[in-house]
Amino acid sequence: MNRNCRELVYNDAMNSQTVFLCAINNVRSGSCNEDCAFCTQSVRHKADIRRYTYKDPSLVLEEARSAAGQGALGYCLVTAGKGLDDKCTEYIARVASLLSRELPGLRLIACNGTATPEQLRHLKDHGISSYNHNLETSERYYPSICTTHSWQERYATCEAVKSTGLSLCTGGIFGMGEEPEDRESLLQSIRSLSPDSVPLNFYLPNPALPIPERTIDRSGGLEVIRRARSLMPDLSILMVAGGREALFGGAEREMFEAGANAIVLGNYLTVSGEAPDRDRQLLESLGYTVATECHER
Fold it and tell me: Which residue ranges form the domains of the chain, and what is each CATH number?
């Protein structure tokens, strides 16, 4: 069975006892000139993070092979910056070609900011099957967290992804000071795009960032998950991503029972996650199994 198919529905994806694992690789870190108030990769905030240019493709392959060995079926190549340019597009295409050749069972996802249909088609032609671009928050609230580009640009990139036949992955961040109606508006906007997967992130405060604290608690986070699943009952992948350990540590069963069926395995962009073997042990202790294959819709 070809596990690197265009649109994926993991076997038993709607079975609450099956969990999909995705890994992230921050292949270019900390070089973004945008002013997103939630992001430590913005050079404007001077956060204490590792900053580096493009990773050597052989290192990315080594890290991807390790993630696949831990059970990751999805692997996301992330770059800091507003969007794709020629250099970034060619780099991601080159890495995707390498990973596709060496790890044909791994579903490759790109997350590289705003993009044109032409750039997206180029990535697709080189092995990328899904593109992640989050709306982050509601259209109304977005100017409160970013002034260097618009929410409409983000939405347009998501539409461009759909137009190329790539699988769309889009979500947002909760707990950045938004109102309950902003959370509802964001989820409605996500639903309007008919994505294949939705990552739900929960804000992680950092002393360098202008948003001082997370403004959502565990019960509010669970309500976001329930509402997302209610609005998108047939969604293949509803992932709890950034902030999972901080908000839902010790309450993972509740998180899955609310409707999530996917988590990030290992580290995040600039924050360490749980060790992969610990997450797998946790899932086993809760009676969940890890998704191992997929089929086309």
Answer: 8-296 (3.20.20.70)
